[in-house]
Amino acid sequence: MNHSIAIILSVYNSEKPDYLHQSLSSLFSQTMKADIYLYIDGGINKSLESVIESFEAEPNFYVVRGEKNKGLAFALNTLIDVALSRGYRYIARMDTDDVSHLNRIEKQFRFMEDRPEIDVLGGYCHEFGSEYALEIKKVPLEHDDLKKYSIIRCPFIHPTVMFRSSVFKDGIRYPLDTQFTEDMALWFLLLEKRYRFHNIPEVLLDYRLNDSTFSRRRGIGKAISEFSVRFKYMFKLKEASFKRCIILIIKFFFHVLPLFLIRYAYKRHR
Q1: Which of 118, 132, 222, 236 makes a 20 to 30 Å CA pair with 193?
Q2: Which CATH class is domain 5-268?
């Protein structure tokens, strides 16, 4: 067991086996070894089981099974609890359809070791799998810029994130009551507690875009949940302005647009 870093990710029945294989392969090929924890969110098909079985001989691979599908936030919280109980210093995120670059974990580990004031660290990504993909998707780097940016956009590309495990020791977890916006709600909770954010200006992983990516970004449930969380924390974090209120209203209506318009906007206005 590597007590420095635990990588956590979750898989459920509708995911593609070849994507899962690519994702796990990228983690087992890292230049700095870490322990990999995969949560199985409910029953999965034989093809996914076969992929998981192909990695079971790896000594740093741990599988946690959930009897029922309870969603990403529950899955990640379960793995965070496991990681804390086993004394890991860092907890890294990953999604089962993305591909981490080979030195991603090493780069983040060394940065966190050199910068003990940073609690959550992300980076850039390369998008692929869609005509709308960006060669490099960038996010702000410094904490103060990320705090302002978070009111309108997510401050991190979620699967690039590495946490200092201490941020979870006071009970903070992914909220279970914010439908479709668990990661964004977590960033706001951490900002409210004055944890420090940073992104490194390097591409850390290949981020897959497909039709389901766009589908997850639309719908009245997504619109209401995101607007409510952002609006509340805009005032809590003392970042309110008339301009930001208008932008949040525009974003609300964006999420209920037809899918073809969301694709168009995604391509033209990123």
Answers
A1: 222
A2: alpha beta
